[in-house]
Amino acid sequence: MQMSVTFEVTFCMRADTHPGETVCIIGDCDMLGNWNPHRAVKLTRVSSPRPSRKADSNEKSNTNGMNIWKRKIRLTNGMHDYKYRYFIARIVESDSEDCETTVDVSKWETNIRQRVFSPRAYMDEPAKYENTIDTFGEYGQNKYVTNGWLIDKTEIHIRLHSNPIYMWKARHRTQTYSIKCTPLDHRFRDTIDEDEEDDYQPHTMPPQTFTKVLVSVTRTIDPEYLGFQFDFYVQFPDKEPSMLVTVFVPME
């Protein structure tokens, strides 16, 4: 007769996270999501970095921006080892029952060997597991962290190169321009009048750079509604740049 064994294990992680990000754990069983990011278990932040007490406010805090995340998870697959990893993501819960939660993985542990929870080792020293705080990306005497990947989003690269823009007026062809690229959601465009649009899209100059290739990178869940606004500014040697024209480029 095979005996069923259940463990309630507290996983605790130290990670450098940004506002809106969550630390998640994912692994090789149903309780840990079976490596599916949509089914990963979210940890709860239990402490935040405290401000530095040093006189110079410009100096970095001793905590280096680290947060502590924790979650107690019930593991019911018996005595075999459980393999798992942590990742950091922005998670947006859906208001509709028909749509899945949106998961945007920003950082992922990439050590070739996964973390391992051993039930036998846990039974020998349960206090050791309960008092251990892991550090994101660090285990096996190495640190391996990389950027996440696209799960629910589409990444679009707008690349301008090899003289793709032609000015019809001869006097415009000899001038120097700066270009600002702004992604727009066309679903809301018709609901905004011109005065409101000016509030949402201020005519601010892009940083001045000199390059033969312009690349703009945008991520979106709904690429079919995406468009781009290009603002062209004329550069002058003796006065502030002036906006020349605005062009809208739809994705369809």
CATH topology of the largest domain: Immunoglobulin-like
CATH-wise, what's the superfamily of the largest domain?
Answer: Immunoglobulins
Supply Rg: 25 Å
Largest sheet: 6 strands, antiparallel
Please indicate the percent range of residues in DSSP E strands (runs of 2 or more): 35-45%
Assign the CATH architecture of the largest domain: Sandwich
Number of domains: 2
Order of helices and strands: EEEEEEEEHHEEEEEHEHEEE
Low-confidence stretches: 51-64, 195-203
Q: Report how far the terminal alpha carbons are from each other.
A: 63 Å
Q: Tell me the total number of β-strands.
A: 17
Query: Treating each run of at least 4 consecutive H or I residues as one helix, how many helices?
Result: 4
Give the overall shape. Answer: elongated
**Global structural class:** mainly beta
Helix amount:
under 10%
- Mean pLDDT across residues: 80
CATH class of the largest domain: Mainly Beta
Q: Short summary of the structure?
A:
InterPro entries: Carb-bd-like_fold (IPR013784), CBM20 (IPR002044), Ig-like_fold (IPR013783). The protein has 252 residues and is mostly beta strands. The chain has helices at residues 119-124, 126-130, 170-173, 194-200; strands at residues 7-16, 21-27, 41-42, 44-47, 66-75, 82-92, 102-109, 115-117, 134-135, 138-139, 142-143, 145-147, 154-160, 177-185, 214-220, 226-234, 242-250.
